[in-house]
Design a protein that fits this description.
Number of strands: 13
Strand content: 15-25%
Number of domains: 2
Helix content: 40-55%
Structural class: alpha/beta
Strand order of the largest sheet: 3-2-1-4-5-6-11
Oligomer: single chain
CATH superfamily of the largest domain: NAD(P)-binding Rossmann-like Domain
Shape: globular
Radius of gyration: 19 Å
CATH architecture of the largest domain: 3-Layer(aba) Sandwich
Largest sheet: 7 strands, parallel
CATH class of the largest domain: Alpha Beta
Mean pLDDT: 95
Low-confidence stretches: none
């Protein structure tokens, strides 16, 4: 199978490339390196890499030539960043998804597109299932919901097989902690390893369904095989267990690092939701998705990696 991975130098995209190469597939990577880094692809041999922008329709079409599947991972990520940069977020995420679908249409490829649990917003019913009416409360969430609708429309209008995967807080080794918009796990681990005080927004009782990176990658591969049989599907890709509060997350990381961090509390961030809790039963029935790595084991693997790369000597 020949596959195109957009966002190939990002956290999820690079791990997906590595898995595809390890499984013997031909891989084309596409990334403008605005957030991703070629260091994420170190040791992943044989990826045909295109350093181009997702909004370049011609470049994307050429990269997709001969590909059977497009794994669309590229995006301008982060709810807080989208609150500060709503125009750029919409331009990259919506126009970029349209270009992916155009490339898939021209090259007779199927699409597995990365969406987000943020499309649910705040709900009165939990766990979150795909039958709920989305209620996005940030430009990022709105752009991801728009991407899902575009994917479904391209299936109906042009026969392009698509599946959109709503990721729930994907985490794991090699996740970048340095950005202002980095996710909470690598920031907490790095703070514990370096003696800094981690920042908790709000009380820390807000909770998330955390999904280990290997499970998210497996979900993509399962979806690629099922795309033609389930065109236009939208599926939750979550950890499949009880959500973990931010306070609990820090407590587990502190235990694993042998530290006693004293967090700094800051205001809640605009656009963030209080709870994410994935019902993955539809993904289980539809594509055979079964998350394997629980939060404690995933954090143990993550701490081990960060200790090797960031711990003070």
């Amino acid at each position: 199978m020949k596959s195109l991975v957009t966002g190939a130098a990002g956290f999820i995209g690079s791990r997906l490339c590595a898995r595809l190469v390890a499984d013997g597939h031909e891989v084309v990577g596409f990334d403008n390196l605005s957030d991703g880094s070629m260091s994420n692809l170190a040791g992943v041999e044989g990826v045909e890499f295109h350093e181009r922008d997702l909004r370049d329709e011609d470049a994307l079409n050429k990269a997709a030539s001969g590909c059977e599947v497009i794994f669309h991972q590229a995006a301008m990520r982060s709810v807080p960043r989208s609150m500060a940069m709503p125009g750029d977020t919409t331009d990259v995420n919506v126009r970029g998804t349209l270009n992916v679908l155009l490339a898939a249409q021209r090259n007779s490829a199927r699409v597995v597109s990365a969406s987000s649990s943020s499309v649910y917003g705040e709900q009165s019913e939990y766990p979150l299932h795909e039958g709920l009416r989305p209620s996005p409360q940030s430009p990022y969430a709105a752009s991801k919901l728009a991407g899902e609708v575009y994917c479904q429309t391209w299936g109906k209008a042009f026969g392009v097989p698509t599946i959109s995967l709503r990721y729930f807080n994907v985490y794991g080794p090699a996740q970048d902690p340095s950005s202002e918009y980095a996710t909470v796990m690598p920031k907490f681990v790095l703070a514990c390893l370096t003696g800094e005080r981690p920042t908790i927004h709000g009380t820390g009782e807000q909770a998330r369904d955390f999904t280990y990176i290997d499970d998210a990658v497996e979900g993509n591969l399962l979806a690629a095989r099922a795309a033609e049989a389930n065109p236009g599907a939208v599926l939750n890709i979550g950890g499949g267990r009880q959500p973990t509060s931010v306070n609990e997350l820090l407590a587990i990381i502190a235990e694993l690092t042998g530290t006693q961090p004293e967090p700094v509390h800051a205001d809640l961030r605009p656009g963030d939701v209080w709870l994410t809790d994935a019902d993955v039963s539809l993904a289980q029935r539809t594509i055979g998705y079964e998350p394997k790595v629980d939060i404690r084991e995933g954090l143990r693997r993550s701490v081990e990696w960060f200790t090797q790369h960031y711990a003070r000597t």
